[in-house]
């Protein structure tokens, strides 16, 4: 049960905002889908010495899957397109400029309910989804980002 009319439970997954450090929440960061918000403890198996019946599973560290963002194909003047082009077409002459980004899940008043931040993100894949002559859909681009770590702020 919601505790107030402004605290719905469970929250809707369709009302969200993506903000890049370089675009400050501009329209350029409007996405259809965001996926990959996940954190997992990486483990290793260590057999018990002298006892073949036991295998210990020990934590090694935290790993993060890539963050995937989908949107309609943007213009060549888009700051995010220019960032992706600098990474994929720059032939590594210019260093990759990682940037932070934030994903916010919003309520009906456009206020953040949950916030995730991603540090030192940079594109590792830039894909255009398939075209089809029998489909009546918007052309979609997918930007896959690697990042150092994420933090849930709310």
TrEMBL record:
InterPro entries per UniProt: CHP02241, Phage_T4_Gp19
GO molecular function per UniProt: structural molecule activity
Domain of life: Bacteria
Identification of the protein by name: Phage tail protein
Native species: Pandoraea faecigallinarum
């Amino acid at each position: 049960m919601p505790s107030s009319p402004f605290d719905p439970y469970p929250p809707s997954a369709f009302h969200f905002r993506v903000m890049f450090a370089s675009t400050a929440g501009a329209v350029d960061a409007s996405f259809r889908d965001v996926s990959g918000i996940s954190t997992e403890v990486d483990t290793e198996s260590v057999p018990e010495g002298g006892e073949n019946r036991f295998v210990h599973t020990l934590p090694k560290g935290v790993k993060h899957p890539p963050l995937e963002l989908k949107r309609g194909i943007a213009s060549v003047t888009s700051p995010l397109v220019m960032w992706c082009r600098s990474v994929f077409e720059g032939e590594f002459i210019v260093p990759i400029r990682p940037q932070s980004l934030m994903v916010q899940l919003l309520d009906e008043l456009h206020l953040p309910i949950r916030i995730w931040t991603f540090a030192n993100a940079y594109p590792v894949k830039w894909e255009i989804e398939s075209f089809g002559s029998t489909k009546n859909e918007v052309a979609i681009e997918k930007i896959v980002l690697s990042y150092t770590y994420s933090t849930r702020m709310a």
